[in-house]
């Protein structure tokens, strides 16, 4: 019996070690063929691996158990999107109301929210509490945008809608470029100082959600979904470059990406943009599902001319997403 127990312990420990190596490699390199693996939150794989190590310890195979468990803790600490923000204790968080200056400099407050077509009610009051200068909305219709605009700044608000995307601002919208077949917007906003900011509001293709990982078709579906998202972002970036003097133009790029923070598509943005939550976020950054948020799929990126100084995800009772609030300093 002792021999069988030890053999089972070694099998579980070996499985945990291999899973740890696979997880570290997959979430670091993010290859397309492992998209179905990385769409699952890394802490779920970590939970399985640590549980196996714990069972191994109980089976009296203590010698290497702590090494494998330690490897898991290092892996989770390095690749888990949640861990970096939770360890950022001293970072200043945005507060409701008018955005306060940062180190004596004025800030631009931006919010993004998937409104879920008002299936959970009207989030206008919750958005208005943060007094954002620019708002990116997804899954919203024109009459609903009008309701939100009335709550935010009344007749002073300007807003544009394309399909089920909308951009609102308390400032002037000078130009808009829309895609008639995609949930995507590009608008030029002029600040009171006369500085122009380009705003890209996206709602990428519906996410692949099938997690029956024992089926090859599921792996192919997740890979193809990532390729689609990459193509959409590539088109958006190309249009931005063709219609502005980017990267010299200050640009906010945000919305509902339908992709987790571990998805490889974000590499397309990291050269010219900074993820506001990754750089300055506090608390739990996950945005979906709002009751038990287990992944981050809503983002606000700022170009190199916009420095994120505060960021927070905020629960709303009127959507199945959490909204993202970010304060930027314009260089």
Outline the structure in words:
By secondary structure, the protein is of the alpha+beta class. It folds into two domains: 78 residues, no CATH class; 223 residues, Endonuclease/exonuclease/phosphatase (Deoxyribonuclease I, Chain A, 4-Layer Sandwich). Helices cover 36% and strands 23% of the residues. The chain contains nine helices and twelve strands. The strands form two sheets. It has a six-stranded mixed sheet. β1, α6 and β2 form a beta-alpha-beta unit. α1 runs parallel beside α4 and α3 packs antiparallel against α4. The chain is elongated and about 75 Å long. It starts with a helix and ends with a strand.
Question: Any descriptors?
Answer:
331 residues; six-stranded mixed sheet; single chain; elongated; 23% strand; alpha+beta; 9 helices; Deoxyribonuclease I, Chain A
Class from helix and strand fractions:
alpha+beta
Characterize the biggest β-sheet: 6 strands, mixed
Report the top-level CATH class of the largest domain: Alpha Beta
Provide the helix percentage: 25-40%
Question: CATH-wise, what's the superfamily of the largest domain?
Answer: Endonuclease/exonuclease/phosphatase
Short structural description:
The protein has 2 domains: 78 residues, no CATH class; 223 residues, Endonuclease/exonuclease/phosphatase (Deoxyribonuclease I, Chain A, 4-Layer Sandwich), CATH 3.60.10.10. 36% of the residues lie in helices and 23% in strands.
Write the SSE topology:
Blueprint: H1 2-29, H2 35-38, H3 42-58, H4 65-79, H5 81-86, E1 108-114, H6 124-128, E2 134-138, H7 142-152, E3 158-162, E4 165-169, E5 172-178, E6 184-190, E7 196-203, H8 216-243, E8 251-256, E9 273-275, H9 276-280, E10 298-303, E11 306-314, E12 323-330
Parallel strand pairs: 1-2, 7-8
Antiparallel strand pairs: 1-12, 2-4, 3-4, 5-6, 6-7, 8-10, 9-10, 11-12
Helix pairs in contact: 1-3, 1-4, 3-4
